[in-house]
Structure prediction request, 67 residues.
Amino acid sequence: MDENLHSPQRHLIELRIEHADLNAMVDRISSELPIDQMALRRLKKRRLLLRDLIARLERESDPPEPA
Prediction:
């Protein structure tokens, strides 16, 4: 059971959830007036970093295709 808490698949799921949460926060802040540009910029930057990390981890977890 404990090994499932630290598995790469679990980590990917948690990152995807965090990315989805950031999407929701970006949408919410974007619709508020006045828009908090600094908060929006920080959220978008974090969201981009998460997207890149998720993509890298997915590439690493997929076996290479045979030539």
User: Anything to note?
Assistant: The two ends are 37 Å apart (CA to CA). The chain has a mean pLDDT of 90.
